[in-house]
Amino acid sequence: MIPVVAIVGRPNVGKSSLFNRLLQRRQSIVEAEPGVTRDRLYGRTDWNGRDFTLVDTGGLEPGDETGLRAATARQAKLAVHEADLVLLVVDVKSGLTAVDREVADIVRRSGKTVFLVTNKADDGKGAPEDFFELGLGQPYPVSAAHGLGTGDLLDAIVAHLPEAVAEAVPEAVHVAVVGRPNVGKSSLVNSILGEERVITSAEPGTTRDAVDVMLSSAGRDYVLIDTAGLRKRSRVDAGIERYSVVRALRAVDRCQVAVVVLEAHEPVKEQDKRIIGYAQEAGKGLLLAVNKWDLAAEAGLTAEDVTAGVREALQFVPYAKILLVSAATGLRVGKILPAAAVIAATHAQRVDPKQLKDTVTDAWRVTPPRAEGGRRPRLLQVEQVTSRPPGFAFRVTDPQAMHFSYKRYLENRLRQQFEFDGTPIRLFFRKG
Ligand code: GDP
Ligand code: GDP
Questions:
Q1: How far apart are CA 419 and CA 128, in angstroms?
Q2: How far apart are CA 213 and CA 224, in angstroms?
Q3: 224 with 256: CB under 8 angstroms?
Q4: Does the CB atom of residue 143 touch ligand 1 within 6 A?
Q5: How confident is the model at residue 25 (pLDDT cuts 50, 70, 90)?
Q6: Is residue 83 classed exposed, middle or buried when 0-12, 13-18 and 19+ CB atoms within 10 A define those classes?
Q7: How far is 176 from 321, CA to CA, in rounded Å?
Q8: Could you read off the pLDDT of 83-142 as tens digits, one per residue?
Q9: Among 41-50, 113-122, 297-306, 382-391, whose mean pLDDT is lowest?
Q10: Strand order in the sheet with 257-263
């Protein structure tokens, strides 16, 4: 997990300004959709080659003094709890207040590393004496508005971040949620996000094809590539909605695992097949989220009926994982991300070379390829040459003579031996 740096403080001290400044415009932040609005904003950035996530605890509504104090304290506690390092922001122009002292107490008691950031030091001067009384050490004077002092602050932040342990930092699993209109993509995304702690973010720059949502769940990082969210957010009209296929394909290009949403009470449609075919061609992991399971159940269909119908229509992706879900009732929605994480691991798998050789040699011995036109192809060597998806090169005496059905036989044997559920695998035949 990459380290988390939380920005806390009472309203109006300049937390959001500092947040945006420290992100260095590398990543723009998109507001959460109405209805899934969170009270915290997250952004990922790096400085001197160290990645970290910055959390802005802003978003407090100005209310009465008591309510405000309680809300500020609650926010600070939440943020500090999940942070590796805390930036307590105070305002040199307004001076110390009682709420500043309360927040300082909270962060000091947390035992976390705390930096006192004295903001609005626009003239470049240090902080007045009274800020030292907070007992948080030497303040870092900055002007978030003008960008003064933020470089020094970033240097100090990365110097104090915990060391990232190389293999303990799993890359975020990129999951694209795609499907034809009205299958329930945004309902599913909302349902997933409703259960998890959510982080909003967006792709930097100009791409407007999807909204990337970063989130952590059960100790894993995910990037949810939400192709439906954009439409809802920007109220793109129907004319533009026609391009949703292009959007879906671009999202698939960027993912490790494509979650293709289908409808349980409807047969699989041509449009579904096209996008699934694309995901297969692109070599992506595949999870079929068969949604609206509640409607199928009402119509008297069993899980077996639905699964069999989907398998029958999609015989070209026998490896696909199927989950029957309902965004409406929440049924099994919580299984989507964990299943995607398993598929992502499978997709990136590198098998043991010895086991691979033994499996293939054995398969070849039990059922050798047919001798087309006289000579029987012999196996010389097999090795894994790619991952994401896993690809295997077979060196044989006569690749032309390898029949399609024999290749499928080899693929099935590899699938029996190794865990390749949810991912396509590729077999290459080369002349030895
Ligand atoms: P938050 O409520 O703590 O997130 O505070 P904001 O970032 O929304 O800032 C509150 C106000 O302070 C805004 O009007 C900002 O423009 C202003 N502000 C933020 N940083 C600075 C600064 O460095 N200098 C000055 N003069 N004003 C600032
Ligand atoms: P999108 O276009 O793929 O993003 O689809 P939406 O999420 O907008 O959903 C389309 C319609 O299907 C909406 O009216 C949803 O309320 C409805 N819907 C979505 N999921 C379910 C579900 O699991 N069960 C039922 N009964 N309706 C659903």
A1: 63
A2: 5
A3: no
A4: yes
A5: low
A6: buried
A7: 15
A8: 889 999 999 999 898 889 988 998 998 889 999 999 999 987 777 778 888 889 889 999
A9: 41-50
A10: 197-200, 211-217, 220-226, 173-178, 257-263, 285-291, 321-324
What pLDDT score does 409 carry? Answer: 96
The residues pairing with 90 across neighbouring beta strands, listed in sequence order, are 118
DSSP annotation of 130 reads: G
pLDDT tens, 379-419? 999 999 988 999 999 999 988 888 889 999 999 999 999 98
Q: Which residue bears the tokens 């903001």?
A: 119
The confidence score (pLDDT) of residue 274 equals 82
- With a 6 Å cutoff on the Cβ, whether 390 touches ligand 2 is no
What confidence category does residue 245 fall into, taking pLDDT thresholds of 50, 70 and 90? low
The Cα–Cα gap between 151 and 22 comes to 9
Cis peptide bond N-terminal to 389, omega within 30: yes
Q: For a substitution probing ligand 1, which of 12, 54, 68, 89 has the most ligand atoms within 8 Å of its CB?
A: 12
13 lines ligand 1 (CB under 6 A): yes
> Which three-class secondary structure state does DSSP give residue 302?
coil
Ligand lying closest to the C-alpha of residue 142: 1
Which residue do the tokens 């965004």 mark? Answer: 327
Q: Which of 8, 10, 13, 17 to mutate to test the pocket of ligand 1 (most atoms within 8 A of CB)?
A: 17
More confident position, 235 or 73: 73
Cβ–Cβ < 8 Å for 328, 292: yes
Q: How far is CA 217 from CA 191, 223, 334, in A?
A: 14, 11, 10
